[in-house]
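Page 42, continued from yesterday. The earlier attempt failed because a stray header line got pasted into the input along with the sequence. Redoing it now with the clean sequence only.
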Amino acid sequence: MKTKKSDVSKVASTLYDLVTTSPTSHFPPALDPHQASQDIIKKAAWKSAGVSGALAIPPGPLGMLTILPDLLAIWRIQAQMVADIAAVHGKSGYLTQEAMLFCLFKHGASQLLRDVVVRVGERYILRRTSLRMIERMCERLGLRVTQRMLGASISRWIPIAGAVAVGWYTRYDTKQVGQSALDLFSRDIDTETTELKDVGDDLTERNLP
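This time it went through. Structure tokens are written below.
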């Protein structure tokens, strides 16, 4: 099955809208942010597994129609989880579009994001970019995510067992996102304004004045 441009555009647009309107959190800074983060991750992982598993129950063509709504629902849960982890660490001010993309996709697209959030020793450098560059990154990620969706779509044709597999994977994926957020916001963060330019499949940066 081939990747359709329309599908890639839908996924990229959905992702762009999500990261440019990051959720707020009601959590105050925690006395033990690590434990608070672990609790947040656990709750979000089970919630996402339940949502994803339920949407994967309809078999066949009907199940295929739930893939994009499933993806959007899971991204929203994960984005809220990231926002909550930033909040319990008292670092909501660092929850930028770049930080959100990094947390959501570090474990699956680290090469694409390697110049956006950079670890230097025990701290991170968070590089602010333009909205156009955010859009380009979402397009790249949209293509990767769509290809992965097509590869995993076979599970939608397997009643019950397929839904369990989808739920299990989503729980794992959400935990990975949570650990990326915990690793980022538990460390010192410096900000830097950059302009990223496309060079083939890579991203290079030039410091802005």
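Notes: The CA atoms of residues 85 and 139 lie 26 Å apart.
Reminder to self: strip header lines before submitting.
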